[in-house]
Amino acid sequence: MYERLLARALASTSRSVLLLGPRQVGKSTLLASLRPDLALNLASPAAFRDYVSRPEQLEHELEAAPAATKTVFIDEVQRVPALLDVAQVFLDRRPPRFRFLLSGSSARKLRRGQANLLPGRLQVHHLHPLLASELGSDWDLGRVLAHGTLPGIYAEPDPAARAADLRSYADTYLREEVQAEALVRNVGAFARLLDLVAASSGRILNLHALCKDAALGYETARRYVEILEDTLVAFRVPAWSGSDRASLVRHGKLFLFDTGVRNALLRRPLDRPLDDERGVLLEHLVACELHRRLGPRWPEAALFHYRTRHGAEVDFVLAIGRELWGIEVKASRRVDRRMLRGLASLAAQSDRVERRIVVFLGPRRQQLDDAEAMPLEEFLAMLPG
């Protein structure tokens, strides 16, 4: 089992926690490692039936719980959002009595159920597939690009079994997440759009083109993309607004949450990353590594992309307070000055650009004019844990 960086933060506090993340990223394993005294798994049909019909049952059970019962773990809480109200009763009435550990994979389901997310009472965290720093000595770039970093899949030693598990995850996700949560009625249309999103993952989001290709109305396509974001299967990297908005592309990029899931959805061979997709996958990997660090782990940071209407672009703009880093990702062992044009365009737009970074696959750091060419592993290692 890989040690998750978030485990240290959760173990060092007595605050109640809501942990959100896609399925199979290790939410249940992480919260169970905190040794709760009482655990409820709402993925169990019997437990779901008990509490969805009578959420007050939990209140009665906690009232009768022995003094030694202090930590309560509720897995897949989005299935019965009313249990959050029960948690609030105890957190308000007797704050030190219980610590609640709650997990969920669908922020949309919680909102649809008008769930009480207990502002000020819960710490909300997100768990993602494994970071490079969590993989440690198990880091293997080819394996990460082809199979992604879902913990259970990455830990499987047999490559053929990893590939089979990954395809199963991609194929059953619609049934387990979308149908079980009743998020869409037309699963076939949603599946078509999901395949198209996988094919365009990392590109600027063009909803009108998606509508045409998936044979969907605009509002339906927009809602389906929102579902992907709300179930944490996709994330958006917005366009950097800059100072001269008229010259900049304003649409964001959409990324799937894991390179392996993207490959499985597109029916790519999973024994290795395809040579002609190596650049796309490397950019995807860096997007995921940056996105997974946003929030409590790096609260002052925000992630954007940059593109002008004249075609100048930078893969990522990282805003850290008022400082900007321009980041270009190249699947090459060599760098040259032609790779710096987008970074120069970004620097001309703002005097807040403090670092111009080219992430590449070479063995050693290089300096090209005002730009740093940095090996991938070195770049990932300097990001906050």
> How far apart are the termini?
18 Å
Number of helical segments? 17
| Gross geometry | globular
Mean pLDDT: 88
Outline the low-pLDDT stretches: none
Helical fraction: 40-55%
Strand content range: 15-25%
Radius of gyration: 22 Å
Structural class: alpha/beta
Overall number of domains: 2
Oligomer: single chain
Largest sheet: 6 strands, mixed
Number of strands: 13
SSE series: HEHEHHEHEHEHHHHHHHEEHHEEEHEEEH
Q: Give me the side-by-side strand order of the main sheet.
A: 8-9-10-11-13-12
Describe this structure in words.
It is built from 17 helices and 13 strands. The strands form 3 sheets. A 6-stranded mixed sheet has the order 8-9-10-11-13-12, with helices on both faces. A 5-stranded parallel sheet has the order 2-3-4-1-5. A two-stranded antiparallel ribbon has the order 6-7. The chain has 2 domains: 122 residues, 3-Layer(aba) Sandwich (Rossmann fold); 251 residues, no CATH class. Strand 3, helix 5 and strand 4 form a beta-alpha-beta unit. The protein is of the alpha/beta class and 385 residues long.
Break the fold down into its secondary structure elements and pairings.
Elements: H1 5-11, E1 16-20, H2 27-32, E2 38-41, H3 45-53, H4 56-63, E3 71-75, H5 83-93, E4 99-104, H6 107-112, E5 122-126, H7 132-135, H8 141-147, H9 151-155, H10 159-179, H11 187-199, H12 207-214, H13 218-230, E6 234-237, E7 253-256, H14 259-265, H15 278-291, E8 301-307, E9 313-320, E10 323-329, H16 341-349, E11 353-360, E12 366-368, E13 371-375, H17 376-382
Parallel strand pairs: 1-4, 1-5, 2-3, 3-4, 10-11, 11-13
Antiparallel strand pairs: 6-7, 8-9, 9-10, 12-13
Helix pairs in contact: 8-14, 10-14, 11-12, 11-13, 12-13
